[in-house]
Input
Amino acid sequence: MHAQFIGADTASDLDVLRRLSSGRFTCRAYQTTPVPDDVIASIVGIAGKSASWCNVQPWHLTIASAHTTEAFRRALVEHAAHATEVDSDLPFPEEYRGPFGDRRRDAGYRLFQALGIERHDHDRRAAQSFENFRLFGAPHVAIVTIPAELGPYAAVDCGAFIGSFLLAAHAHGVATTPQAALARHAKFIRSYFGIGEARQMVCGIAFGYARHDHPVNGFRTTRVPVHEVMTMV
Ligand SMILES: Cc1cc2nc3c(=O)[nH]c(=O)nc-3n(C[C@H](O)[C@H](O)[C@H](O)COP(=O)(O)O)c2cc1C
Output
C-alpha cells in the first residue's frame, strides 16, 4: 500500500508536528515551579523513541530534582567564575566562519536586542552569557552523556534524542534550554554528579516552565530557506 493511504490522521499529524516544531524555542528565563516526575518520565520516554545506529540508545540523562538543581547551580556558578578555560569531553568548535558565523551573529544579535544590550556593551553581554551557569533560573537540569567507547556516532544518535526531548517537553508545556555552555565544564560536572570517565558529556538541558513576561523569551531565531540546506540531484 502506498504510504499516503496509511493512517487516517496524516494531515493532523503534520499540523501537530509543524505546530510543535515552530512553537518550540530556547527558553532563557524560568519560573521556579518544579516539573512533576511523571511529566519528566513522559518526556524521556517519548524522546527514547528516537532512532539510533543499531538501536544502541547510547544517551543517558542525569536529571536533577529542584532541590539538587539549587545546590548544583550554586556550585557551578562558583566554579565557572574562576575556571574560564574550556574543559569539555567533546572538542568545541574553534571558529564559526562564513555562513555559520553569520547565523551565529544573527541569533546573538536578536538575543541582545531583546534585552536592550548594545553591541559594544561587553560587560552586559558577558553577564548574560554567564546566566548559562545559573541555568537561567530553571528548576531542573539534565546532564546528557554518551559512552566514550562508541565514538562520534553516539553523539549523532544523542542529537536525535535531544531534538525529540525538546519537542516532547514543549508538547507538555515544558520549556527547555539545550546548553553546550555546560559541557565547557564537563569534568567538573561529571565529577559533581559521580559520572565516570567512561561517559562523555554532550550538553546540559535546563528545563521548567517559561517566564513569558521576561523579554529574553520574547525573540525568535530564523532559519535559512530549505534550498540552502539541501541539494536535489
Ligand atoms: C547542542 C546545543 C547546544 C546549545 N547550547 C546553548 C547554550 O549553551 N546556551 C544557550 O543559551 N543556548 C544554547 N543552545 C540554543 C541555541 O542557541 C538555539 O537552539 C538556536 O539559537 C536556535 O534558536 P531556538 O532554539 O530558539 O529555535 C544550544 C542548542 C543546541 C542544539
Remarks:
- The chain has a mean pLDDT of 96.
- The longest strand covers residues 199-208.
